[in-house]
Amino acid sequence: MNRFFRARYLVALFVSSLALLQPPQVSGTDPRIRKLLLDDSFQSAGMPKIFSEGRTSTLALVDALDDEDERVNLNAQLMLRLLGDERGIQRLHEWYEKPRPILKVINGPIPVPLRQWDYLQIEAILARPRREWRNDAINYLLALAIDGSAHAQELQKRMMSTAPEDESTISQMVANLIHGQQQAAACGVGAPQVLLRRNAFFLTPDERKSATIKQLAYANNRQLALLSVAHTFGNTFLVVLKRAVGCWKFQSVALYSTNN
User: Fold this and answer.
1) DSSP class of residue 186?
2) 236: left (phi over 0), alpha (psi -120 to 50) or beta
3) Are 89 and 111 in contact (CB under 8 A)?
4) How many Å apart are CA 88 and CA 92, to the nearest integer?
C-alpha cells in the first residue's frame, strides 16, 4: 500500500472510530410512553393504558410528537385526539403549523368543540375533487354531527350535499347521518356500552344490533370512556364519551384503521 492510500485508510479508520465512540442518539420521548406507543398490540394494550392515564399523559404525548420513529409520532397524535384535553389539542395544532419538509397528519378522531384548525381542514376537503375524498372526510362528517353548532351544521350540509355518491363508505355514512343526527347530540344515561348499542348514530339500526362493542378504558376519574365498535365484515370505530350532568355525550367518533 503506497503512502497516499495508507494515509487515506488511516483517516477513514480514525473517523470510523470516532463514530463508534459517539453516544447513541437518545429519543426525547418518555421511555415508558414510547414503549406503549410502539406496542405491537397498540389498540388492545398501549392505547387503553395511555388513555386511562388521562390528562396526566398530555405533556409526554406532546414530546412524543417529535420522536424520530413515525409510529410513535402517529400514535401520539391519535392519543392526544382521543383524550381531547384542551391543552393537548392546542399544542398539537401548534405542532401541525410548524414548517417542515413533510407532515403526516393522523386520520383519526376530532374532539368537539371543533377549533379553527379543524374548520380549515374541512374547507380543504371541500376544495378537493370528489374523487379525492378520503376517510378524513368521514371523520369530519362525524365530528360536525356531534358538534352541532350553527357553523358546524352549515358545513355538514355542504359536505353531505357534495359528498361523492360513488364512494360507498362515504355515501353510506351520509345516509346514516341523515337518519341519526339527533342521536349524535343525545345525552344518554346508563353504561357506555348500553348507550352505544342504542345511540350509535354512525351505524344502521341492524348494524347496531350485531356490532361488537368493547369498553377499552376510562380516564379522568371516569369522566371519559373509550370504546371500540365493530360490525361484522365492516369497519371499526373508536368512540370517546364524555360525562355530562347525569349522562354521557359523544366527544368524538372516528373510523379507525391501523394504516392511518
Assistant:
1) -
2) beta
3) yes
4) 6
State the Cα–Cα distance between residues 8 and 85, nearest whole angstrom: 57
Phi, psi (deg, nearest 5) at residue 239? -125, 135
Tell me, letter by letter, the H, E, C secondary structure of 108-130: CCCCCCCCHHHHHHHHHHHHCCH
The residue type at 41:
S
Helix (H), strand (E) at residue 243: strand 236-243
CA distances in angstroms from 244 to 31, 90, 188, 199, 214, listed in the order given: 34, 22, 9, 16, 21
Kindly tell me if the per-residue pLDDT of 166 is higher than 80.
Answer: no
Bridge partner list, 45: none
Q: How far apart are CA 82 and CA 100, in angstroms?
A: 25
C-alpha span between 129 and 19 (Å, rounded):
50
> What are phi and psi for residue 195, nearest 5 degrees?
-60, -45
pLDDT digits (tens, 9 = 90+) for 181-223: 899 998 999 999 999 999 999 999 999 999 999 999 999 999 9
Query: For the chain, how far is it from start to end, CA to CA, in angstroms?
Result: 55
Task: Please give the pLDDT value at position 258.
Answer: 66
The tens digit of pLDDT for each residue in 87-143 reads: 999 999 999 999 988 889 999 999 999 999 999 999 999 999 988 888 899 999 999
**How far apart (Å, rounded) are the C-alpha atoms in residues 215 and 211?**
13
Domain ranges of the chain: 31-96, 116-256
